[in-house]
């Protein structure tokens, strides 16, 4: 096997991962091993697998990506794989789970220390450890997710096989691709967020070049005096179906809501908890908790 005997189970607002450290760069997993570890019946179970390694030991990173990570001060890389074994560019919740794991392993500072610079396939992300912080929970991190790119609003039509109706979707690039459908919009005829079956893969038309992560969103409240909105989101992630949370999806959602309402700060409820997303023209920040569940000897 090309995975170590000891791995860890983690989650960040219910988005769960199998995680292990590979400081010597000798445990790059195969797709079959990822599928085995992430299998909820025959393995450990997770929405994905995270290998914490040095950037130079992640074989699919280019020399330019490795040099950029090292120049930015990122000694560690989140080598993230979807549950089906495919490579993923980014995972916002995964960065928080990785940072907490790195703290526990002694690779990152505890709350009050220096920010943790983490390389990903979508560039270096900077995480600040905030400790316990209500209403977000224990072991909270704020992630500077960097720049973003949004297409024209409501360009795509999103449907669900077996469900009547459709909704308009907006493309957002967070280093990985998203289409965000706001269900309150006048053209949305899909059922309410709670009624959706997101284990069925949504259909996005016209078809984009790559498989999409798709978010379905309901605006719950906007506090104009504070400039903060509240929303509820559910997400279908490519490679694993519905997950309880999706960090890049939360960011894509807040970016889309800002375009529609002018509000740049959102408390978004997902099935795994509540997270804060703060959007500006230049970047987006994601704040939420992380948890190390168990150490597992295979």
Give the SSE layout.
Blueprint: E1 6-12, E2 15-22, H1 31-38, E3 48-53, H2 63-71, E4 76-82, H3 92-105, E5 116-120, E6 123-133, E7 137-144, E8 149-150, E9 156-159, E10 167-173, E11 177-182, E12 203-205, E13 213-223, E14 228-237, E15 241-243, H4 247-261, E16 265-270, E17 273-279, E18 284-289, E19 291-297
Parallel strand pairs: 2-3, 4-5, 11-13, 14-16
Antiparallel strand pairs: 1-2, 1-19, 3-4, 5-6, 6-7, 7-18, 8-10, 9-10, 9-12, 10-11, 13-14, 14-15, 16-17, 17-18
In short:
It is an enzyme of class 5 (isomerase). By secondary structure, this protein is an alpha+beta fold.
How would you characterize the overall build of this protein?
The chain has helices at 31-38, 63-71, 92-105, 247-261, and strands spanning 6-12, 15-22, 48-53, 76-82, 116-120, 123-133, 137-144, 149-150, 156-159, 167-173, 177-182, 203-205, 213-223, 228-237, 241-243, 265-270, 273-279, 284-289, 291-297. A hairpin with a 4-residue loop joins strand 13 and strand 14 (228-237). The mean pLDDT is 94. The protein is built from 4 helices and 19 strands. With 298 residues, it is α+β, with helices and mostly antiparallel strands. The chain has 2 domains: 6-146 and 289-297, Roll (Diaminopimelate Epimerase, Chain A, domain 1); 149-282, Diaminopimelate Epimerase, Chain A, domain 1, CATH 3.10.310.10. The chain is globular. 46% of the residues are buried. It has a 19-stranded mixed sheet that branches. Substrate binds at residues 15, 82, 92-93, 176, 213, 237-238, 247-248. Its main location: cytoplasm. Catalyzes the stereoinversion of LL-2,6-diaminopimelate (L,L-DAP) to meso-diaminopimelate (meso-DAP), a precursor of L-lysine and an essential component of the bacterial peptidoglycan. It holds the Pfam family DAP_epimerase. Homodimer.
